[in-house]
From TrEMBL:
It catalyses: an acyl-CoA + malonyl-CoA + H(+) = a 3-oxoacyl-CoA + CO2 + CoA; a very-long-chain acyl-CoA + malonyl-CoA + H(+) = a very-long-chain 3-oxoacyl-CoA + CO2 + CoA. Keywords: Fatty acid biosynthesis, Fatty acid metabolism, Lipid biosynthesis, Lipid metabolism, Membrane, Transferase, Transmembrane, Transmembrane helix. One of its GO terms (biological process) is sphingolipid biosynthetic process. Pfam families: ELO (PF01151). It is a multi-pass membrane protein. This is Elongation of fatty acids protein. The keyword tRNA processing does not apply. The keyword Transcription regulation does not apply. GO terms for cellular component: endoplasmic reticulum membrane. PROSITE patterns: ELO.
Length: 288
């Protein structure tokens, strides 16, 4: 039973979508090949550093209304997508068990694949975060630029690899983004929010949970495939390259965000330099 998805399907003209927009078809679905993705991400880097150079002798742009619309869209969009994913995952979980819901091939359903695709395209919309940053003449922090580009790459590899465990990582990320983009929307409107430090903590907790689940699934796959005598439950669906990419990138995120937290909140006040967040203000929140 997926009443929310069914209600949306009853009012949205999804029947007119071409098949390559409903399902992940490598070579047909937009941004579904390595050349397309690497070109897009290289263009992202060229654009943001090009804007940074262009703005060198110009006054910072405010763009507050556009900035708030951008953040409101991503917060609300993340909330709707999260609700749809929870609904679909719940129907899978109740008809099987926890391990199957995370690792079984059957857990890669057509609906979840479609939701993963929407989430993937969200990652390209989120690249506008950096455009705003550059137009406001704020420093382009390594954490921000790396995280944005690497996350688009991560989502691409997991779609290609059909990793059944994807919903865990994506759901947590969507939850964080609901809160995070609301934070940016509210503070851009002048709101004084006291819990910015806890938002960074939430981001770190997200990656810890991600890594526990992803390493667990990777362990299950490799032991089942190569070392079946080692204690394990069963295979975890997905390609090995996608699993390794997931482990590496998520591990790097955790290290970078912990470092960001230490630099922002733990250094002595006199020695602490202003740490610029993902949107270019010194409020101690990184993009997650």
């Amino acid at each position: 039973m997926t009443p929310l998805a069914d209600a949306l399907l009853s009012i949205l003209p999804t029947d007119v979508l071409p098949r390559y927009l409903e399902r992940w078809i490598v070579g047909e679905t937009p941004l579904s090949t390595w050349p397309a993705v690497t070109t897009a991400l290289a263009s992202y880097l060229a654009i943001i550093f090009g804007i940074q150079e262009l703005m060198r002798d110009r006054s910072p742009q405010q763009l507050n209304a556009l900035f708030r619309i951008h953040n409101a869209f991503l917060s609300v969009g993340s909330l709707i997508l999260l609700a749809l994913m929870i609904e679909e995952v719940a129907s899978i979980w109740f008809s099987s068990d926890a391990f199957s819901a995370i690792c079984a091939t059957q857990s890669w359903t057509p609906k979840l694949e479609f939701y993963y695709m929407i989430n993937y395209y969200f990652k390209y919309i989120e690249l506008l975060d950096t455009v705003f940053l550059a137009l406001k003449k704020k420093p382009l922090a390594f954490l921000h630029v790396f995280h944005h580009s690497a996350t688009a790459l991560l989502c691409f590899t997991q779609l290609n690899g059909k990793t059944s465990i994807s919903w865990v990582v994506i759901s947590l990320n969507l939850f964080v983004h609901v809160v995070m983009y609301y934070y940016y929307y509210a503070t851009a409107g002048g709101a004084k929010i006291w819990w910015k430090k806890y938002l960074t903590t939430l981001q770190i907790v997200q990656f810890i949970i991600d890594l526990f689940v992803v390493y667990y699934g990777t362990y299950q796959h490799f032991t089942h495939t190569y070392w079946p005598w080692i204690p394990h439950v069963d295979n975890c669906a997905g390609t090995e390259s996608a699993a390794i990419m997931g482990c590496c990138l998520l591990s790097s995120y955790l290290v970078l965000f912990i470092n960001f937290y230490i630099q922002t909140y733990k250094k002595p006040i006199k020695a602490k330099k202003a740490v610029v967040n993902g949107h270019g203000t010194t409020n101690g929140v990184a993009n997650g």
